[in-house]
Amino acid sequence: MHSLAEALGVLIVSWLTYQWYAFRSTRAKIDHIPTVGSDGFIGSYLGAWKYFLSGYKVIEEGYEQALLSKCALSRPNHNGWIVVSGQDMVEELRRAPESELSSVGNVVDLLQVDYVLGKHVSDAEWYHVSVTQKQMNRNVSVLFPGIMDEMRAAFEDHIPLTEDWTSLKAVDTFVHMVCRIVNRFFFPTLQLHKDAEFLKLQTDFSVVLILTATVIGLFPTALRHIVTRLISRVPRTLKKMKILLGPMLEERLRLDTELGRDWEGKPNDLVSWLLEATPPAQRTVDDLIIRIMKSEFGGLHTTSIVLSDTLFDLAARPEYIQPLREEIEEVISQHGWTKDAFSRMHKLDSVIKESSRLGGLNFRKAAKDFTFSNGLTIPAGYSVGCVSRAMQRDLSVFKNGDQFDGFRFIRGSDEPAMVSGITNPDINFVLFGSGGRHHCPGRFLAIAELKAMLSHILINYDIRLPGDLRTPPAGQFFGTNRGANTFAKLEFRKRRA
């Protein structure tokens, strides 16, 4: 027993010594960058917990203290990141190629893909991203009538028109509605949008994946495989999804192999789009299920959060509702309930963008040392992002940037036009990423859904906050990422005026 204790002690000391050496080696690379929190070996690990609970405050405090007009901040722990500000640096960040600053690499770290889904998933080609950029976006207009049909049906089921006020948890309600609508778009002929078990697996997967990855990220690398086995429900969810989708996917793989890419009767759906791009080594049921889940993961909760936040802001500021109704009714009277019509709703676009302006951070991971033109070097393995929330509250960037101005992004009063639409690249607005090839590939579908749902609500419902409050509920933060308040409620009734 005594020798066992001694061996264990030696092992612990050796491991701590290795960790300290690795920490000091990495820390030496960023000594030239101002540090948020402790830059000590133990303090930086403790700082990870503070970052988890209030990362946005850490960034904003550093931004104010360092006066980062053209500078950077770092956090020197085991999940190191560097944030930069100033338009020149943000523009360089936007233009950097994927081979140097990787969006995929950051997602792998953020979602702990190596541990939660497996190294084979993170190392495989992420072809579903190009499918989103190409096949999916090409089909938004083609399949938009189905999106509208499912949206109306979802409102009838989840928010029926009533004469009296009905109180609902906004985020939870909209997550389930958006899941139906998205799956009507992805699988228009398979009726999966009506399968309660399938929809529950989709909504649960996003929550389980985020929570599991967040907890795992708080532990040292050496312990993450063990923690994953103890807490992760992701494998169970994927197993259930395989039971549901496996037979259909096996049949589609067989038909695609035997009949070629353009066989008669081939559905225009997500499976077909994925099979057109799937590398030969990844043409398996398991890989297709991962790609389907990932394709839905990105937009499901983001869309629901932005929709909830926008409605919270409008309910707290009812003076915006009538101008929006007038715009929506005028555009629809001329163009109908079409995707083209929603692209002409500039006031609605501006309100969504303003409500989303104070979001979180978007990071990319340095695949190798990356040096900005001002000499700042991002060490390989570190993630780098822009100080989006702090910059967007900065009065030198936005006039009255700490206040809500719903029509901030339009010009003109008689025929308003967008200064910069919500889907357009904008270095001062990074809800959908920093632009270029790294702009969110699914943003066009997300904004089409958002505008359709908001238009339907404003035309058919009155809305208010409980107690007719005039202050929107505060958001919830995980690290630097902001989400809508999942406990907050909205009240709906049939429109009276």
Any overview of this molecule?
The longest helix is centred in the middle third of the chain and has 32 residues, at 285-316. This protein is globular. The protein has a single domain (33-494), classed as Cytochrome P450 (Cytochrome p450). Helix 14 packs across helix 19 (443-460). The protein has a five-stranded mixed beta sheet with strand order 1-2-8-5-3. It has a three-stranded antiparallel beta sheet with strand order 4-14-11. The protein has a two-stranded antiparallel sheet with strand order 6-7. Helices cover 55% and strands 9% of the residues. The chain has helices at 2-29, 41-66, 87-95, 103-110, 113-116, 119-123, 127-139, 144-158, 170-186, 196-216, 224-231, 234-259, 270-277, 285-316, 321-335, 339-343, 346-356, 388-393, 443-460, and strands spanning 72-75, 81-84, 101-102, 166-169, 363-366, 370-371, 377-378, 383-386, 410-411, 417-418, 461-464, 476-478, 481-483, 489-494. Heme binds at residue 440. InterPro entries: Cyt_P450, Cyt_P450_E_grp-I, Cyt_P450_sf. Its cofactor is heme. Keywords: Heme, Iron, Membrane, Metal-binding, Monooxygenase, Oxidoreductase, Transmembrane, Transmembrane helix.
- Give the full name of the CATH homologous superfamily: Cytochrome P450
Please tell me the CATH architecture by its name.
Answer: Orthogonal Bundle
Structural class: alpha+beta
CATH hierarchy class name: Mainly Alpha
Question: Can you tell me the CATH topology?
Answer: Cytochrome p450
Total strands:
14
Number of domains: 1
Bin the helical content: 55-70%
Major β-sheet profile: 5 strands, mixed
Please state how the strands of the largest beta sheet are arranged side by side: 1-2-8-5-3
What overall geometry do the principal axes of the alpha carbons give? globular
Q: What is the typical, i.e. mean, pLDDT?
A: 82
